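[step 3/7] inverse_fold.run input=structure_tokens len=91
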């Protein structure tokens, strides 16, 4: 019995991980998130409100370098705002 190759619903097995991957995702396994999604996650973390479900999803999807860059940018902006507020109140 033969099967047709190249159908959108076909699956293949990844030899490195042993996981089945569908061909409909253009050969990519898990999709990595964008820098904007990393910024959003970091801002919610700075605010202190994050659902456990979202935290677990972020841990598997976000690029660690994007998270570090987003955290440094947010920290710099936060410090800049604090300095502006202090100058406005004192001066």
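[step 3/7] decode complete -> sequence:
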């Amino acid at each position: 019995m033969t099967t047709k190759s190249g159908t959108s619903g076909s699956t293949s097995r990844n030899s490195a991980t042993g996981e089945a991957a569908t061909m409909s995702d253009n050969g990519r396994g898990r999709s990595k998130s964008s820098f904007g999604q990393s910024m959003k996650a970091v801002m919610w973390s700075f605010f202190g409100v994050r659902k456990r479900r979202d935290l677990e999803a972020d841990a598997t999807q976000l690029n660690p370098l994007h998270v570090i860059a987003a955290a440094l940018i947010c920290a710099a902006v936060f410090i800049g705002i604090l300095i502006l507020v202090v100058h406005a109140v004192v001066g």
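[step 4/7] annotate
The beta strands are 11-13, 20-22.
Residues 64-90 form the longest helix (27 residues).
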